[in-house]
Amino acid sequence: MHEAEELEQLESEELEELEESEFLCVSLKYSVPVAMAAHFSILLPTTWPSGIHVGASWNKGLTLARGKGMGGEFRTKGVNILLGPVVGPAGRVVSGGRNWEGFASDPYLSGVLVSETVKGVQGVGDIASTKHFVDNEQETNRNPGGGVEAVLSNIDNRTELEIYLCIMCSFQRQDANGLLKTKLGFRGGVVSDWRAQHAGVATSEAGMDMAMPNGGDFWSSHLKDAIKNGTMPESLPSPGIGMPKDLTKPHRIVDARNSSFKSTLFDGAVKGHVLVKNIRNALPLKTPKLLSIYGYSAKNPDENNPTDGLSPWLMGSGSFDYQEFGAGFFGWSGATPGTTGIVLNGTLYSRGGSGATSHSLTISPYDAIVHQASKDDIALFWDFHNGKPAVDPASTAYLVIGNAWAAEGADRPGLRDDYTDDLILHVASQCSNTAVIFHNVGIRLVEESIDHPNVTAVIFAHLLGQASGKALVSILHGKENPSGKLPYTVARNESDYGVMLRPDEPEGIFKKLPQSNFTEGVFVDYRHFDENKIKPRFEFGFGLSYTTFGYGNFAVEKDGNKSFEEFPKGKIAEGGVEAEVENKGEVEDKEVAQLHLGLPSTGRDGERVPVRQLRGFEKVFIGVGETKKVVFELSVWDVRAMWRLGRGEYKVEVKGSGRDLPLVGKLTI
């Protein structure tokens, strides 16, 4: 479109109604603000397992299938850009309100699953908008407001490249330029997050192509003025304006649910369960004659009415001041004081914020337990409302089901809550076989009860989606095996996380200009624990099974036909790692074999190198008594004069869980 035509269209002052102009918009007529689930205002969606739950599965094939299912559903709904998958937040702030949207606190695991998701979404013809670029690690002060600017992320180049540079623009300000479109050569479109445009021409100069949901105060008629007076350089394309006004008009309901993905929904719900304690073979259940169920997260919420819009019930916010949260969701926000961080009004299938789901069909844990009990003639007792329920000592087993909630717009008040811990201890003090299940949005500390001798099993079930209850019961009764591994590290105490526990708040001379200083560098999650010799409660990559696996026949081979330069070009195939995994138990299942590398220190500028870093994983099915070979390629992707091939001795480890003694080898370059 020529400038005259462009200005004529701008002068109509109907920028929000622009549709498919080749120059002004990039065919975003049907883009709507949705994260990795259908938006809360859309009817008849599928409630998919959340990112953190899929991350706990460590399953590439499942992640690809989920991407295809979600992409196809969005496309059928008329949405041509899916706002996800999520690479930021990357889990730096462990109490971050949106960590559940991402896959893991490790950039390698997250990167692999993000890649599979993008392949799935775009393989069915939709566009994936990987977000948030970049350093979007806290919700507190994510937007300017009340005279306080959005938080500024201060981060060194090495940390940026190794941890966070994983593409939707984030809310945070950032102190570096030229990464995405210059150094990385990204040629795709860059869209702002909703109302995250904090400047006018400067955002276009920085590479933003589209402002969502509209230009707001920075564009509208001001864009026309900027083009006329030359403030907007001719070399820059005019930014697109998304979401035409007709989205406010009534639309027909489109049922985009696809029954062919039912198995993906179920498998996705099952595979993200992480069993972290199981003593005296408490699980699977041995067809108990009497089963008692306690906890507020066992039943369905009392309301599922999408016409209520942004309601406390739908957002799962019954546990705190909803009005205060609502104000924070659209502007300046922080953790709401005095809240418990749990949802007392029913089980969690998804989470709060723009990725919340108006559920079309859900099966709660209680629903599924009743269904199974009717088959097995199991008597049931339950109490979902009392914090100190009456406990019948005649029961064979006892289930306590709680949750840990979070949402976009606010960071979590803590990593545990007194109400749930007191409930667990109350039941366990009277019952010798108490299994605890958490529907958790991320890290949930368990020190208050984990060592109690009557707490015989603990499961981190995360956010499972609409097949929640069915999946949990299949694991409790041994029809499915818990094969998930933790995609984060569970500490013993909140203080173990150091500066990464809480979001940075405005203070001192920066009271109006909040700063987030990434002083920990690359030492995030398990790297932090290794570096500071802190013993966690449960390690990154940890997870129990109903069977046992053994590792052997370990080999590290170097490709002798390769020559290496300090600044190599392209892909460097250095060698390979092989190991055999044997199923020594009585249950067939999949095992996650993990490759960790200890990199040699470069010695430049006194850089410290993490003790180990995840650099490969394979999830393989192994029958009873069978042995399978796992193979990992050791390679380095380098860009000339930017990435350097470190020379020295590499420590190579292969293991199946955080507590396993690894197979250890060495490789010298």
From TrEMBL:
Protein name: beta-glucosidase
Gene Ontology CC terms: extracellular region
GO-annotated molecular function: beta-glucosidase activity
Family per record: Belongs to the glycosyl hydrolase 3 family.
UniProt KW keywords: Carbohydrate metabolism, Cellulose degradation, Glycoprotein, Glycosidase, Hydrolase, Polysaccharide degradation, Secreted, Signal
Pfam families: Fn3-like, Glyco_hydro_3, Glyco_hydro_3_C
Fibronectin type III-like domain: residues covered: 591-658
UniProt GO BP: cellulose catabolic process
Organism: Triangularia setosa
Keyword Membrane found: no
Protein localization: Secreted
Record's keyword annotation contains Phosphoprotein: no
InterPro entries associated with the record: Cellulose_deg_GH3, Fn3-like, GH, Glyco_hydro_3_C, Glyco_hydro_3_C_sf, Glyco_hydro_3_N, Glyco_hydro_3_N_sf, Ig-like_fold
Pathways per UniProt: Glycan metabolism; cellulose degradation
Catalysed conversion reaction: Hydrolysis of terminal, non-reducing beta-D-glucosyl residues with release of beta-D-glucose
